[in-house]
Design brief:
It is a single chain. The chain has 5 helices and 11 strands; from the N terminus they run βββααββαβββαβαββ. It is α+β, with helices and mostly antiparallel strands. The protein has one domain: Nucleotide cyclase, GGDEF domain (Alpha-Beta Plaits), CATH 3.30.70. The protein is globular and about 40 Å long. It starts with a strand and ends with a strand.
Length: 197
């Protein structure tokens, strides 16, 4: 996977990333496999949030909410590993991961939705294919923000895709549905978006 470094050339991302949940670290391969598109150095970004997390926390109470989050984070860890994702960051009920290919990120999001169904959690997810820049051992840049805005724009249970990610999805045999053109908060221009599955 190529990740652009601010002030330098693209290079492979090789550090260990903190895992979701109890501060464990996600086991990463010593050398990451080549990116799906070596010529462009594109990286797929996935953002996932729990729908109405604050309302759930209030209704369940602190202890029950913490226990539910622990089970959710365990599921995230398993599903990310299954689909070759690398966790970049977590924030409460949400997380951000990167993948070599958008199809892997999309399958991960769909798989996670099914995996947490017994927990009665609703998720909203966003996948974008773009360039990442290494900053403070994390992946940063405008394309990362696009992924985050896609997730926040998704309906409950929806995996929302940028046009680039949707193109990869279709080539991988993942069905998509046109969700039209919309603006993404804070991101210039209009974006043609699609839903996966």
């Amino acid at each position: 996977m190529h990740v652009s470094v601010v002030g330098g050339a693209a290079r492979r991302w090789s550090h260990r990333c903190p895992a979701a949940g109890r501060g464990e670290q996600l086991r990463l391969r010593a050398t990451m496999r080549a990116a799906a598109d070596e010529s462009t150095g594109l990286t797929a970004v996935l953002f996932v949030d729990i729908v109405d997390a604050t309302g759930l926390a209030v209704s369940l109470g602190d202890r029950a909410w913490a226990e539910l989050l622990e089970r959710y984070h365990a599921a995230v860890h398993i599903v990310l590993d299954r689909h070759g994702g690398w966790l970049m960051d977590t924030a409460g009920d949400g997380f951000f991961a990167i993948f070599d290919d958008a199809a892997d990120a999309i399958r991960c999001a769909l798989d996670l939705e099914a995996s947490v169904a017994p927990l009665e959690l609703g998720l909203r997810s966003g996948v974008h294919l773009g360039h990442c820049w290494k900053a403070d051992e994390k992946c940063a840049g405008v394309d990362v923000h696009v992924g985050a805005r896609l997730a926040s724009s998704a309906a409950p249970g929806e995996v929302l895709l940028s046009e680039k990610a949707a193109g990869r999805a279709r080539r991988a045999g993942i069905p998509t549905a046109d969700r039209g053109v919309r603006s993404l908060k804070g991101v210039p221009g209009s974006w043609h978006v699609f839903a996966a599955g």
